[in-house]
Amino acid sequence: MLSFSKRKLWLALCFAALLPAAAQLLPESLTKTGGTPGKGVSSDPLGRDTPSGTLFGFLQAAQAGNYSTAAQYLQMPAAKRQTQGEDLATKLKVVMDRAFSGNLRRVTNDPDGTPQEGVPLDRQRIGVLTAGDVETDLILVHTTDPSGAKIWLISSDTLAKIPELYEQNEVRQVETHLPHALVRYDFLGMPLWQWLAILVAIPFAAGVGFIVVRLLRWPLRAWIHDRTSSLAVFRNRIANPLWLVVSVLIHGGMVHYLRLPLLQRHYYQQCASVILVVGLFWLTWRVLQWLLRIFRDRAIAAQRLGTSSLMLLGERMLKAAIVILAGFGVLKNLGFNMNAVLAGLGIGGIAVAFAAQKTLENLLGGMSVLGDEVIRVGDTCRFGDRVGTVEDISLRSTRIRTPERTQLSIPNGSLATMNIENLTLRDKILFNPRVKLRIETSPDQLRYLLAQVRRLLYEHPKVETAGARARLISFDDSTYTIEIFCYVLTRDGAEFLAIAEDLLLRIMEIVDTSGSGLALPSQTLYLGRDAGLDKDKTDSAHREVQQWRESGKLPFPDFDVKDISEFSNSLPYPPPESAVRQQK
Known about the structure:
Layout: H1 4-23, H2 27-33, H3 51-63, H4 67-70, H5 78-99, E1 100-101, E2 123-131, E3 134-144, E4 150-154, H6 156-168, H7 180-184, E5 186-187, E6 190-191, H8 192-223, H9 230-237, H10 239-256, H11 262-301, H12 305-333, H13 338-355, H14 357-372, E7 380-383, E8 386-393, E9 397-401, E10 407-411, H15 412-416, E11 420-422, E12 429-431, E13 434-438, H16 443-459, E14 469-475, E15 479-488, H17 493-513, H18 535-550, H19 561-567, H20 579-583
Antiparallel strand pairs: 1-2, 2-3, 3-4, 5-6, 7-8, 7-11, 8-9, 9-10, 12-15, 13-15, 14-15
Helix pairs in contact: 1-8, 1-10, 1-11, 2-3, 5-6, 8-10, 9-11, 10-11, 11-12, 12-14, 16-17, 16-18
């Protein structure tokens, strides 16, 4: 039993076969109004002011059995047209149906014709008529009718060969073996046996197409062992469009040998070309979609999420472009003037571009952001004075989740020109506090304190030793200021806060051990009961600094490199009494 998608394809093939019949409903009305396919109302009552109007007007009149009207499209004297016109029109219709080779879709709608190599400007070569050993060009000539209007007629040179060509055309051998009713009776200008052959060819073409697709899948099956792999997905995804394309081509080849009447052949070719264009663009889209999916999966595996998002956007735009191109291809095969359509789209595109300037700016801004991979979904960034986590990058805007749990939407056009600080991409985090000490602190206390803080930075396993420093940078009337500069070896903000807390507590212990104290942001009023600084701790700090001097190990302007290498990363962290350390 056929799946739903294949049933739709069967309907498409049936539609291709039956459209020539539906197309026959148009010619009579067009003949009455003097219209031509792809054109508006003609100035000539018979539509002979263009090559296309003359050719299709003749075929439509002859198919309707109105050979007196069909004779009006022939270049011959009026008297001769009255006596021989209908007979010659009848023979010309038979010859064109059985002996014509050419493409009616290329017949121009331009009243002046189109220049052709080796053909005078007042003539148009439409195709070739061949029967037996007789061959002649089907030529239209630009002439003037009795009223003075310029019209196109089938040339007298071509008409001179028609009787001979007609004699050379024999009855098809297949018609001699068919029931007389199938050959004799017509439906919409085509014998019943040809309609029956077209319908019978549909399941045959579909079956052969199915077999061809199966045969093409076997080489891929030999290479693919994992049916869920990308090649297996590719093989399964292209099966339906490939089957449609192959089936239409096979059906077209079979119909070619039926030698349909020229007008019906033209309509069939138009309809089959439309379905073929749809199938080819469908197949193209499936192949491109498969390739883009492979590249996107590789980008995701390489953690290039911005490129992945950009490829997803490109896939959507490519799909829209393929649909538009397929529409153009269908319209062109139906005989529409694409120059006028493209000109209209160009003017409309300019108008839309002006009207949607901001939208286009945001679209291009989003492509720029995704292409540069400045930010990715999940990154925590600073946008101006706001900090948040990127939740989505769409065509128009980027949505940010702020620490207050609100959602901030920033247009991509503004985002592309904004200074963005990506906090997630930090490889380490700066620790840069300033410690203010009481003004009573002595120089040796400061030396002790600076040395111990530097040692702390060198010993701590979560602090990068290279570049770590603690320096006295200023003093004023009430404080001494020590700047601490180092990088904490973590990328996680929460872990950084825990490490910074540990460092600050240890620095407070060093300040307390030195006998000094942190300066308060206020003035101190000393009363008589204030004992001042702790004398014992102050003396202890003085003695230790004195020992450094006497041993020649005063760590200023810094510790010796050998000493740093000895106690680097030796400090226990977390501290022994830490609850986190006990859990470990």
